[in-house]
Amino acid sequence: MTKRALLLVNRHSRKGQRNFAQAVDILNDLGFELIVVPIKSSEHLPQLIQKHGRKVDLVIVGGGDGTLNGVVDSLMDMNLPLGILPLGTANDLARTLNIPVNIPQACQVIAEGHIKYIDLGWVNGKHFFNVASLGLSVRITEKLSKGAKRRWGILAYAFTALQVISQTRSFRAHIMINGEKIKVKTVQIAVGNGRFYGGGMAVAEDATIDDQRLDLYSLELKSWWQLFPLLWRLPQGQHGNLAWVRTLEGEHIEIRTRKKQEINTDGEIITATPAIFRVIPQSLGVFVPRNSLFQLEEKKRPK
Question: How confident is the model at residue 26 (pLDDT cuts 50, 70, 90)?
Answer without folding.
Answer: very high
